[in-house]
Write a structure and sequence with these properties.
This protein is an alpha/beta fold and about 450 residues long. It is built from 13 helices and 16 strands. The strands form four sheets. An eight-stranded mixed sheet has the order 5-4-7-1-9-10-2-11, sandwiched between helices. The protein has a four-stranded antiparallel sheet with strand order 13-14-15-16, covered by helices on one side. The chain has a two-stranded parallel sheet with strand order 3-12. Helix 1 crosses helix 7, helix 3 packs parallel to helix 11 and helix 5 runs parallel beside helix 7. The longest helix is centred in the middle third of the chain and has 23 residues. The radius of gyration is 21 Å and the shape is globular. It starts with about 20 loop residues before the first strand and ends with a helix.
């Protein structure tokens, strides 16, 4: 479509050229920043949960780079998935909820169409959860293979779903992890055989409710005892089963000899869910916007888990809030990258968002065309290849978030984060400024003490 990008491949596909890199993006569902056994910040003790066994994520992290300030573009599933596809923020997508104007993908760049512009030889596949009301199919967005227009109910494997519940059901293929991984490994096996470059997104249904896990994994965690956080042992088991699926995919990459030319990115679609697994400390940490905000928080509050330990921490601790909100607990998520030129066991502390993936992949694939002005993301190539240091070129310095349904917008630049709470007349009723380098839990509002910084960030937002 006119105006999207210069639709000229970097070089003719027939010309002699180095092999294009492969890309795999593993997206988990409702997995909070600290909801694995992998520390997501070297200096924050509670940035992981040692109760959880996630050896595959640990393997990925040790072989690559961890982004301690990695963000999902939105605090719930569908907006994030659109942003990943398009390289745009939720606000520019006009899609901070389930609906947007994304129904006509011919008017929007997507990762598959961008990579095929770099080189038409790219094959693209999407397996797992597509989203809720995405308004465009995977094929319309340029994917050659997919599981179709799938959603949360698909991932339950025809097991009854009760909204808001935390019901558990033992399964031999929990959250379709095993069968989905089989389709993913088959896809990359075929591409390796045909020597075609590929992009594959594997969008897991776990760890979204409802809880499903292998019976033997559940038994393991029940023997382990009461969790130190307020999730139940069954949820921990589901997280390990998810990790096992990720490990099977990593094994296949190694078996096929693809690791040296394949970038693997892993992240989550939003922060951890609060439903049914948290306690009063969750509400204390949420503390939204005065009396009205607190009432709104209470209306969306989880019920106390009666089986949690008395001193159990909220699932997203030390982050404030959870899924649905623009505090750190809703949008700060695991973010890991492995691939050619990325130093093993390295860190990047610059804020990045998943809408950076599209320009990053285009850059790493050798694309030389200019991306459209509507692309909010910037290439992470410089920081990936320079041990986390360097510039991320975006039109805006930092990353932005918008969720009017919860009455919030946010802007992160460097260590500073501005959170706006909106009133009914579309005017800000509260401005909160946090120095995340010193206050990762967002408890010390510096908006008045740092009035000049607040004003500057507000003007930019």
């Amino acid at each position: 479509a006119a105006g999207l990008l210069a639709l000229t491949p970097a070089m003719d596909a027939a010309e002699s050229a180095p092999a294009r890199p492969n890309f795999i993006f593993i997206l988990t569902d409702d997995q909070g920043w600290a909801e694995s056994g992998v520390p997501m910040h070297p200096d924050v003790k509670d940035s992981c949960c040692p109760y959880l066994d996630t050896p595959s994520l640990e393997r990925l992290a040790k072989a690559g780079m961890r982004f301690s300030s990695g963000y999902s573009p939105g605090p719930l599933c569908t907006p994030t998935r659109r942003c990943v596809l398009s390289g745009k923020s939720t606000a520019r997508n006009r899609g901070s909820e389930f609906r947007s104007n994304f129904y006509d993908p011919s008017k929007h760049l997507t990762i598959p169409t961008a990579l095929k512009t770099v080189d038409p030889a790219y094959r693209c596949a999407h397996f797992g959860k597509w989203g809720e009301n995405m308004e465009a199919t995977p094929e319309q967005c340029g994917y050659d293979e997919s599981d179709g227009d799938t959603g949360n109910l698909t991932g339950n494997g025809n097991v009854a779903w009760k909204q808001g519940g935390e019901q558990f059901s033992p399964q031999q293929d929990p959250k379709l992890i095993t069968s989905m991984t089989a389709r993913a490994t088959d896809f990359i096996t075929r591409q390796a055989k045909e020597k075609r470059p590929f992009y594959m997104q594997v969008s897991h249904y776990a760890s979204h409710l409802q809880i499903q896990a292998h019976p033997e994994t559940v038994e393991k965690y029940k023997k382990r005892g009461v969790p130190p956080r307020t999730f139940p042992p069954e949820w921990a088991a589901m997280t390990e089963d998810l990790d096992t699926g990720i490990g099977a995919l990593l094994d296949k990459i190694d078996e096929l000899g693809l690791a040296g030319n394949t970038y693997v990115f892993m992240s989550a679609d939003n922060g951890g869910s609060p439903y049914g697994r948290n306690n009063a400390l969750y509400l204390q940490m949420l503390n939204v916007g005065g009396p009205e905000g607190k009432a709104q928080a209470a209306s969306n509050a989880p019920t106390t888990n009666p089986n949690a330990a008395p001193d159990a921490l909220p699932d997203n601790y030390p982050l404030r809030g959870a899924k649905q909100w623009l505090y750190e607990g809703g949008i700060r998520v695991p973010f890991i990258a492995r691939g050619p030129g990325i130093k093993a066991n390295s860190w990047c502390h610059q804020p990045v968002a998943q809408y950076d993936l599209l320009p990053t992949m285009v850059d790493l694939a050798g694309g030389t065309f200019p991306l459209a002005e509507e692309v909010d993301g910037g290439s992470l190539r410089q920081v990936l290849e320079n041990e986390g240091q360097g510039e991320i070129q975006r039109a805006l310095d930092g990353v932005v978030f918008h969720r009017p349904n919860r009455g919030q917008s946010a802007y992160r630049s460097g260590d500073w984060k501005l959170v706006i709470t909106w009133g009914p007349d579309d005017q800000p009723v509260k401005k909160e400024l946090f120095d995340l380098s010193k206050d990762i839990s967002e408890q010390n509002n510096l908006a008045e003490a740092q009035a000049e910084k607040t004003a500057a960030m507000w003007a930019t937002l």
